[in-house]
Amino acid sequence: MSSFLILYGTGEGQTAKIAERIAAAIGERGHEATTIDVGDRPDSFSLESYDAAVVGASIHVGKHQDAVREFVAANRDALSAMPTAFFQVSLSSATEENREEAAGYVESFLTETGWHPDRIGQFGGALRFSEYGFLKRLLMKRIAKDLLAETGEADGDVEFTDWEAVDAFAADVAAFVEGRLGVTPEGTEPTSP
Questions:
Q1: In this structure, what are the phi and psi dihedrals at residue 16, rounded to the nearest 5 degrees?
Q2: CA torsion, ordered 87, 60, 45, 22, to nearest 10 deg
């Protein structure tokens, strides 16, 4: 059994929801998975307490959370010494036409931090109109006009996350870590990276 850290930054909660899903999938394979919001790390926090790390961030106005970017840059060497993965949550990842834009955000993040994770996932986010004030609701409707037209939604909350893709990413990350660390969960056959 390996211990996984799933560290994330979230703007409106979808990245936290995805982090919890990844942790659950990894836990189902017999590993220990701990989710922590980057802003809520305990004073005693140490990457060395974990065998592997998964870092997640969402895109808002073309940028990832500063706290996630700063954490990765400050801990790049420790992250490089263990199996790692990065996942990004954005509306750009929700459509095929915008995947290149989403990939550009990932590239910018990796360039800014100097980090090279072993696995990368990109997932569609969500629009939480019920939580937005009038101006933000108006702005988000304008930004996501084409995306909303595809779903037929106009006012309700809309989730664009492909949960099967999240589960597949979690399984891939777990299998990679198992292969790299030579760990086989109970009741399964060994995997290779």
A1: -65, -40
A2: -30
Answer yes or no: are the C-beta atoms of 133 and 139 closer than 8 Å. no
Cα–Cα distance for residue pair 192/179, rounded to 1 Å: 4
Tell me the per-residue pLDDT of 68-101, one tens digit each, with 9 for 90 and over.
999 999 999 999 999 999 999 987 766 666 677 7
Entry pTM: 0.84
Q: Please write the tens of the pLDDT for every residue from 11-63.
A: 888 999 999 999 999 999 999 999 999 999 988 899 999 999 999 999 877 78
> Residue type at 39?
G
Judge contact between 131 and 91, C-beta under 8 A.
Answer: no
Which residues, 6+ apart, have CB-to-CB distance to 97 below 8 Å? none
Residue 142 CA, chain-centre distance (Å), reads 25
Domains in the chain: boundaries:
3-125+161-181, 127-159
Task: Compute the distance between CA of residue 106 and CA of residue 112 in angstroms, rounded to an integer.
Answer: 10
What are 3's strand-pairing partners? Answer: 32
Structural fold of domain 3-125+161-181: Rossmann fold (3.40.50)
